[in-house]
Design brief:
With 142 residues, the protein is α+β, with helices and mostly antiparallel strands. The chain is built from 2 helices and 8 strands. Strands 1-2-6-7-8-5 form a 6-stranded antiparallel β-sheet. A hairpin with a 3-residue loop joins strand 1 and strand 2. It is globular and about 45 Å long.
């Protein structure tokens, strides 16, 4: 098991200061982060819906990308300029209105310059994912 370089409180403080456009309100919370995995929760809002009454793709992609960023920061520490180089999403089923969306991320490989991970997006307490994401992040020289 990996040792976290940043705990949840440190991540929240860093993100509020350095990335307030994504983490300034109370709509997304970090439930856990341990340097290898993290769990984020986005509270349900009608702004998340697309026509037809399902959680929108942009909402899911943004949450997955943010979860990957959080798990990476928990592993490497406060490196604000780590950036997404690839994100692939498979939409598996409808995200139900009225339910929070959970993002369970885990690092698959952490190198010096690249990190690869996956994120399962869940609708509330339903066990089956509504989307599966793989992502690669570029880690700048420190």
């Amino acid at each position: 098991m990996s040792t976290a370089k940043m705990n949840v409180a440190e991540l929240e403080q860093f993100l509020r200061r350095e990335f307030p456009q994504a983490f300034s309100g109370d709509d997304i919370t970090i439930d856990s982060a341990d340097g290898a995995t993290c769990l984020l929760r986005q509270r349900y809002s009608e702004r998340m819906l697309r026509p037809g009454g399902t959680i929108s793709g942009p909402t899911l992609m943004a949450l997955a990308d943010f979860a990957m960023y959080v798990v990476l920061l928990s592993a490497i520490g406060p490196v604000g300029l780590a950036v997404t180089t690839n994100l692939n999403i498979n939409f598996l089923r409808k995200g139900e209105p009225g339910r929070d969306v959970l993002a369970a991320a885990r690092l698959l490989k952490l190198g010096k310059r690249l990190a690869v991970g996956e994120v399962s997006l869940l609708s509330g307490s339903a066990p089956d994912p509504i989307a599966h994401v793989t992502a690669t992040y570029s880690i700048p020289n420190k």
